[in-house]
User: Fold this.
Amino acid sequence: MSLIPQKAFHLGAESLFEFPIRFNKSNHSGSKRISYILHSKGGCMPGQPNVFMKNARSKASGGSNVIENRITREFKLENYHILYGIKYIHTNLTSFSYDQYHPNDDESFRVSINAAYRQIYGNLHPLESERPIDIERRLRNGDITIREFIRRLSKSDFYRKNYFERINQKRVVELSIKHILGRPILKQSELIKNIELINSEGFESYIDFLIDSYEYIEIFGEHTVPFMRAWDSSCGLRTSSFMNSIKLTASFATSDNASHLRSI
Assistant:
């Protein structure tokens, strides 16, 4: 048994994609002289991430919490060393960080946004008029990263309508953790904490809480599209996560929207 590769024990259809999908156009950004804000042909212009994304030097809005907000979280992330990627017990102590190549060509962009829509929208396909084309353009231009693209998809009217307003709070937490963190709920206390956060801070703050979490940054970073990752015994997951993941994913032909309609 020890000679059988670990991947041979994986579930047969974990994902539609063979590898995690990555895209990064922001490494070509930085020009302060021109942007598509002022230019109609700006789809090919160098992007400006500092204009379109919050960072540790952004100005906080008047309604932001003083201690915990997006700007303070970005400051912590910039000043703490995080070892990126999924960890396993047998490799955790020997893992190290390195600069990984992230493609930026048009084909990688197309694959990335398709994977993001499928993961975040739970295989529920929006109409062409419901797609947030503006943030697709900003991702392609290098103004935002995949993480910010995921944040804005998760806060979109389409996501709010189908995965927040029409279902109970337990299902909201269950699906948002699946879509954004790529795993099921680990324990009852996590469910309670997340429901309390939704009630006290609201839907958008809850989305920020998940995407700004160390778990998200550690596993997916800035440039990787989230994916279901609870198919094996990686660090931080439980034995029950495998069976719970099977219940959550059901099959590739159904959408999470259809699943929750049947369960109500």
